[in-house]
UniProtKB/TrEMBL annotation:
<keyword id="KW-0812">Transmembrane</keyword>
<feature type="transmembrane region" description="Helical">
    <location>
        <begin position="114"/>
        <end position="136"/>
    </location>
</feature>
<feature type="transmembrane region" description="Helical">
    <location>
        <begin position="87"/>
        <end position="108"/>
    </location>
</feature>
<keyword id="KW-1133">Transmembrane helix</keyword>
<protein>
    <submittedName>
        <fullName>DUF2975 domain-containing protein</fullName>
    </submittedName>
</protein>
<feature type="transmembrane region" description="Helical">
    <location>
        <begin position="7"/>
        <end position="24"/>
    </location>
</feature>
<dbReference type="Pfam" id="PF11188">
    <property type="entry name" value="DUF2975"/>
</dbReference>
<keyword id="KW-0472">Membrane</keyword>
<dbReference type="InterPro" id="IPR021354">
    <property type="entry name" value="DUF2975"/>
</dbReference>
<feature type="transmembrane region" description="Helical">
    <location>
        <begin position="44"/>
        <end position="67"/>
    </location>
</feature>
Length: 162
């Protein structure tokens, strides 16, 4: 099952890279054709979308590393914490990109209430993901502590006392 999850993550990673390199600029060109007053925001939109997709790619790398650790039976080691921290950081960075994007749109006078609503929704979803990952990080921390206690107790029982 872990191998299947890694194949899926690799596929999603590849699709996101294709979207980031070819699809996003194409969509930006179409939007500029439909709404010419947004032409000045094309490059900023492409860059911000690229940064946002890079956050998703970084999160996929963290998930890949956690899956690899799980496959090797090392998920409940201290080293897993940094990958979960990376996931939390990706969620936080994505929320910052959304806020900056809203600032750029409204700073250019191109924003409507719909953009503000979408940005607010993205912030709520991002905050929810960050809180969920933070909770899962705490569960992982507790599991690592429990495994250390069990492992430490087993080693102490194997050593004969004098």
């Amino acid at each position: 099952m872990i191998t299947l999850a890694k194949v899926g993550a690799g596929f999603v990673f590849t699709v996101i890279v294709i979207v980031q390199v070819w699809v996003v600029p194409g969509i930006a060109d179409v939007v500029v054709q439909w709404v010419p007053e947004l032409a000045g925001l094309r490059d900023a939109g492409v860059v911000l979308a690229g940064i946002l997709l890079s956050c998703v790619l970084a999160a996929l790398v963290c998930v890949w590393r956690l899956l690899t650790r799980a496959d090797r039976g090392r998920l409940f080691d201290d080293g897993s914490m940094r990958w979960v921290d990376g996931l939390v950081g990706c969620a936080a960075a994505a929320m910052i990109v959304v806020v900056v994007g809203c600032g750029v749109v409204f700073g250019a006078g191109a924003g409507s209430r719909a953009v503000l609503l979408i940005a607010g929704l993205a912030m709520v979803v991002g905050l929810g993901v960050a809180l969920l990952l933070g909770g899962l990080r705490e569960v992982l921390r507790q599991a690592v502590l429990l495994q250390d206690q069990i492992g430490g107790g087993a080693q102490a029982q194997e050593t004969p006392s004098r």
